[in-house]
Amino acid sequence: MAGGQKGGQAYVGVGGWTYEPWRDNFYPKGLAQARELQYASEHLTAIEINGTYYGTQKRESWTKWAETVPEGFVFAVKASRFCTNRKVLAEGAESIGKFLNQGIAELGPKLGPVLWQFMPTKKFDPVDFAGFLKLLPQEQEGVALRHALEVRHDSFVCPEFVDLARDHGCAIVFADHESYPGIADLTASFVYARLQQSRSNEPTGYDADELSRWAAATRAWTGGKAPPGLPYVTEPPSPAAARDAFVFFISGAKERNPAAAQALIAQLS
Question: What is the pLDDT of residues 117-171, one digit of tens each?
């Protein structure tokens, strides 16, 4: 596990673990597909489960995933699109309940944040969004829940949204993306970053200088600080208690993302 500078933990990984091109440049040749999660969990410190966005998983699958990975490894879980891709978010209680009841609590201490991702066309409606956040529970079957909000429309770049997320203890996902808004404001007891600009012509996705900058940002996050040079909507808070930081290399040149994650883990070790 990558250690934080002042006690917070950095969890670094990729989205999913089943991707055919990784069998050429990440997984050893001939590795059985049934062993890919185990291998990934031994070389990364977190994985964002994306398949949950599209469909419900069996409870036995959650149990098996938890048993496969080592202690200290965590899964972030992307919430169902039926919860977030709707006209009125505050009317999604039934979908949220169905998503949370499928078995994610079987992960126990290996459950990281739940990622609530919104469509790029979804605009900020303060009343509706407040109603949605009130639907998000603090625990599921006795397991504490942490919620991260990934918004993709410029209307969310406003103090009212930042304050709303902070009031509910939800993290705003920081997206390193060429077209989605980047909101680096710290609003929760943890940080969630999705780095989405890896390049195929870089063996590690991001070059050495870029990875050094992300390592410095991660150390600041785990040390309770707001990294300089990132886009903030409101005035960054004074240094606070240590935070866990969840950093995922997602999209971009996906075939490079495991190498990018491993390079960042090495810098943080």
Answer: 999 999 999 999 999 999 999 999 999 999 999 999 999 999 999 999 999 999 9
H or E stretch at 37:
helix 36-43
- Within the chain, strands assigned E span 2-3, 9-15, 46-49, 74-78, 111-117, 139-140, 143-144, 147-150, 171-172, 174-176, 190-195, 244-249
178 phi and psi, to 5 degrees?
A: -75, -20
Measured distance CA(111)–CA(160) in Å, rounded: 29
The span from the CA of 36 to the CA of 166, in Å, is: 37
CA distance 21 to 268: 26
What is the set of domains in the chain, with CATH numbers?
2-268 (3.20.20.410)
Query: Which residues in the chain show pLDDT less than 50?
Result: 1-6
Q: Using CB atoms within 10 Å of the CB of residue 144, give its burial: 0 to 12 exposed, 13 to 18 middle, 19+ buried.
A: exposed
- 175-211 burial: b if 16+ Cβ within 10 Å, else e: bbbeebbebbbbbbebbbbbbbbbeeebebbbeeebb
Q: Which residues, in sequence order, are bridge partners of residue 75?
A: 47, 111
Residues, the chain? 269
Q: Return the pLDDT at 108.
A: 98
Distance CA 78, CA 15 (A): 10
pLDDT computed for residue 24 by the predictor: 82
For the entire predicted model, the pTM comes to 0.95
Burial status of residue 163 (CB atoms within 10 A of its CB: 0-12, 13-18, 19 or more): middle
